């Protein structure tokens, strides 16, 4: 169960870590990305209650095995979407050349002013961004959600049914703690794949003019899904051979006066599917009619409604606000936040076992940790970095004052004769720390180098605005944030890790409160 949960969590968090890459690859809005990410919960909720009810009467390990196989198929479909598409084509004003022998006059149309034979220019690739190929990712993630349905309710109840009451919280805490290694490795896998170019192995990397910190960079998001699919398939195999029930400790005979599904099996009573279905609605009504459970359900909805958005877009927030690459953002989440959560969950279960906390005490601990965690969470948004100075967007072309963006501020006297497009984003950085939207907007007349090492020279906007001893050359890529931004980012991560630890202290007590507040017969629903 632990191995399977590890792989399940790895796959789920890898999806979270690849959100930015998928968004850029398919040219989607955050709304569409939220829909894709939420498709897992959609598929999960469609079958969760039904599978939980029927699973209580059927062979739980084999249901988990079937679910794991479905998750493997869904994850494979998500990864294979990459091979249904053409090569990734990012926006750039630099022609894709097959050697570095040509000079680019960016201030004018490069294909007209650069004396480049047509044979040296690679033919344009069909750009499938904005197509409906993302629907395959949506369907694959939905299938993964359907497959996950039996795991938590049936797996946790399988452990809880055959453990001593005082040991059950500790076992579940150990399971959840080891499971959290999955998200850690999921983010590390996401970090590794984000460092690889999306079409690695299919294009000449020397011709790629962007780096991992560029807003147009797309990593090999598909690779991790293929790895995850294989791991999930392997994890499903042992569940086919687990028994329907395990031997119960002698001291647990009086744990519940109700007759468990396993007791029915031991008496050779075979329930028919129709008889099981008749009990679904009454069981659901009895469950929702439990006041304690209903209040906990409402609290969980509010809690996860706020948490899931933060968790999904946390890496993207770190990229946009602090200038981190997708690879580094995923790495830091996996190495700092998730270990803190794992330690918090383990200590929460240890506290319940050490002090034998009751249902009420467990609920109080869960509430206190959640409340303190949310207060610390609000402090994170007090740390931020100033905008990068971009000529015509955030500062004037001489860099002395801020500007309010409009179409007119994008141009200046130094580039009015360059026939530049305001829709192109191919940023270059000057020694002054000012970022220009493109080499054309910087008024550059020639270039040297090739690929991501291209340097543009004789840039009129640079020499006009900063004439005193300043180079008139610019290099590809956006200028980095100011030095004080790194201090702000360190403060942000420190508060984030502390918030993660305190919030997770109440995870195991809260989980046990839910389990112990309902009748055993409806526990799996």
Automatic annotation (TrEMBL):
<dbReference type="InterPro" id="IPR004156">
    <property type="entry name" value="OATP"/>
</dbReference>
<feature type="transmembrane region" description="Helical">
    <location>
        <begin position="33"/>
        <end position="51"/>
    </location>
</feature>
<dbReference type="GO" id="GO:0016323">
    <property type="term" value="C:basolateral plasma membrane"/>
</dbReference>
<keyword id="KW-1003">Cell membrane</keyword>
<comment type="similarity">
    <text>Belongs to the organo anion transporter (TC 2.A.60) family.</text>
</comment>
<feature type="transmembrane region" description="Helical">
    <location>
        <begin position="292"/>
        <end position="311"/>
    </location>
</feature>
<dbReference type="GO" id="GO:0015347">
    <property type="term" value="F:sodium-independent organic anion transmembrane transporter activity"/>
</dbReference>
<dbReference type="InterPro" id="IPR036259">
    <property type="entry name" value="MFS_trans_sf"/>
</dbReference>
<protein>
    <recommendedName>
        <fullName>Solute carrier organic anion transporter family member</fullName>
    </recommendedName>
</protein>
<dbReference type="GO" id="GO:0006811">
    <property type="term" value="P:monoatomic ion transport"/>
</dbReference>
<feature type="transmembrane region" description="Helical">
    <location>
        <begin position="219"/>
        <end position="241"/>
    </location>
</feature>
<feature type="transmembrane region" description="Helical">
    <location>
        <begin position="170"/>
        <end position="198"/>
    </location>
</feature>
<dbReference type="InterPro" id="IPR002350">
    <property type="entry name" value="Kazal_dom"/>
</dbReference>
<dbReference type="Pfam" id="PF07648">
    <property type="entry name" value="Kazal_2"/>
</dbReference>
<feature type="transmembrane region" description="Helical">
    <location>
        <begin position="331"/>
        <end position="351"/>
    </location>
</feature>
<feature type="transmembrane region" description="Helical">
    <location>
        <begin position="63"/>
        <end position="85"/>
    </location>
</feature>
<dbReference type="GO" id="GO:0015125">
    <property type="term" value="F:bile acid transmembrane transporter activity"/>
</dbReference>
<keyword id="KW-1133">Transmembrane helix</keyword>
<feature type="transmembrane region" description="Helical">
    <location>
        <begin position="357"/>
        <end position="379"/>
    </location>
</feature>
<dbReference type="GO" id="GO:0043252">
    <property type="term" value="P:sodium-independent organic anion transport"/>
</dbReference>
<keyword id="KW-0472">Membrane</keyword>
<keyword id="KW-0812">Transmembrane</keyword>
<keyword id="KW-1015">Disulfide bond</keyword>
<keyword id="KW-0406">Ion transport</keyword>
<dbReference type="Pfam" id="PF03137">
    <property type="entry name" value="OATP"/>
</dbReference>
<keyword id="KW-0813">Transport</keyword>
<feature type="domain" description="Kazal-like">
    <location>
        <begin position="408"/>
        <end position="463"/>
    </location>
</feature>
<dbReference type="InterPro" id="IPR036058">
    <property type="entry name" value="Kazal_dom_sf"/>
</dbReference>
């Amino acid at each position: 169960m632990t191995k399977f949960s590890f792989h399940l969590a790895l796959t789920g968090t890898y999806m979270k870590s690849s959100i930015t890459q998928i968004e850029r690859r398919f040219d989607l809005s955050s709304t569409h990305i939220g829909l894709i990410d939420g498709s897992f919960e959609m598929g999960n909720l469609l079958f969760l209650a039904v599978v939980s009810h029927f699973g209580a009467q059927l062979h739980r390990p084999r249901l988990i095995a079937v679910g794991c196989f479905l998750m493997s198929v869904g994850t494979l479909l998500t990864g294979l979407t990459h091979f249904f598409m053409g090569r990734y084509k990012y926006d750039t004003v630099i022609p894709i050349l097959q050697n570095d022998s040509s000079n680019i006059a960016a201030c004018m149309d490069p294909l007209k002013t650069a004396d480049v034979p047509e044979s040296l220019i690679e033919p344009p690739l069909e750009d499938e961004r904005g197509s409906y190929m993302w629907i395959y990712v949506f369907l694959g993630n939905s299938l993964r959600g359907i497959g996950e349905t039996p795991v938590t309710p049936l797996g946790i109840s399988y452990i809880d049914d055959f453990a001593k009451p005082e040991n059950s919280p500790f076992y579940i805490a150990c399971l959840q703690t080891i499971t959290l290694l999955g998200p850690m490795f999921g983010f590390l896998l996401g970090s590794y794949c984000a460092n690889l170019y999306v079409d690695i192995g299919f294009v000449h990397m020397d011709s790629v003019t962007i780096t991992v910190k560029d807003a147009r960079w797309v990593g090999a998001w598909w690779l991790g899904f293929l790895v995850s699919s294989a791991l999930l398939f392997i994890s499903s195999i042992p569940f086919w051979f687990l028994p329907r029930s395990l031997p119960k400790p002698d001291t647990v005979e009086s744990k519940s006066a109700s007759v468990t599904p396993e007791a029915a099996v031991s008496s050779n009573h075979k329930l028919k599917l129709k008889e099981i279905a008749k009990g679904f609605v009454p069981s659901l009504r009895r469950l929702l009619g439990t006041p304690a459970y209903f209040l906990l359900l409402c609290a969980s909805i509010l809690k996860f409604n706020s948490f899931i958005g933060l968790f999904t877009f946390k890496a993207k927030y770190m990229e946009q606000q602090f200038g981190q690459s997708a690879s580094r953002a995923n790495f830091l989440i996996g190495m700092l936040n998730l270990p803190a959560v794992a330690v918090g969950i383990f200590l929460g279960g240890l506290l319940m076992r050490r002090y034998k906390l009751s249902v009420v005490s467990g609920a109080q601990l869960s509430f206190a940790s959640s409340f303190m965690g949310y207060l610390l969470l609000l402090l994170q948004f007090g740390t931020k970095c100033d905008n990068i100075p971009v000529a015509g967007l955030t500062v004037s072309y001489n860099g002395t004052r801020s500007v309010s963006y409009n179409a007119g501020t994008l141009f200046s006297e130094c580039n009015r004769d360059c026939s530049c497009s305001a829709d192109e984003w191919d940023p270059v950085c000057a020694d002054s720390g000012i970022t220009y939207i493109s080499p054309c907007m910087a008024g550059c007349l020639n270039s040297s180098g090739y690929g991501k090492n291209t340097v543009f020279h004789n840039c009129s906007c640079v020499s006009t605005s900063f004439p005193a001893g300043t180079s008139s050359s610019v290099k590809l890529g956006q200028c980095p944030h100011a030095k004080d931004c790194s201090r702000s980012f360190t403060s942000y991560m420190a508060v984030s890790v502390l918030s993660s630890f305190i919030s997770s202290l109440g995870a195991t007590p809260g989980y046990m409160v839910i389990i112990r507040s309902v009748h055993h017969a409806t526990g799996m629903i």
